[in-house]
Write a structure and sequence with these properties.
Strand order of the largest sheet: 1-2
Number of helices: 4
Largest sheet: 2 strands, antiparallel
Helix content: 25-40%
Number of strands: 2
Length: 103
C-alpha cells in the first residue's frame, strides 16, 4: 500500500494535501456495512502535506484519548507501525510531526 501511495504522491506533489478524519473510529472498516461500537471518542480532523506524519499523529492521538493503542483495541496481534516505518523508509514521508491546533 505504501508503494502505491508513494507513486500517487510523487505524481501530484507539490499540489497535494491529506486529510484524516478521526471520528466514529471502529475496529473494522465502515465499508463492511455493519454497525460497530466506536473504539474511542471522536478526535476531529487532521490535515497536512505528509501522509506518514498524519497517520502517526492519528495513532498517537487515538492512544492518548483512549488510553491504549489502536492495535490493542482492535487487532492486538498486529503492529500498525510496520507500514508507517516502511513508508518512511521508502521516502513517502516522516513519522515526525508537529500539531498546530486551529481556532
Amino acid at each position: 500500500m505504501a508503494e502505491h501511495a508513494l507513486g500517487f504522491s510523487r505524481r501530484l506533489s507539490p499540489h497535494i494535501g491529506y486529510l484524516t478524519f478521526i471520528a466514529h473510529l471502529t475496529k473494522d472498516c465502515d465499508c463492511m456495512g455493519k454497525r460497530q461500537k466506536p473504539l474511542c471518542p471522536d478526535i476531529g480532523v487532521l490535515a497536512g502535506t505528509d501522509p506518514v506524519a498524519l497517520d502517526q499523529a492519528a495513532l498517537d492521538l487515538v492512544g492518548e484519548r483512549a488510553g491504549q493503542s489502536l492495535e490493542a483495541m482492535s487487532y492486538p496481534r498486529l503492529d500498525g507501525t510496520i507500514q508507517l516505518a516502511h513508508a518512511e523508509r521508502i521516502g513517502l514521508g516522516t513519522r515526525r510531526y508537529r500539531i498546530v491546533r486551529a481556532g
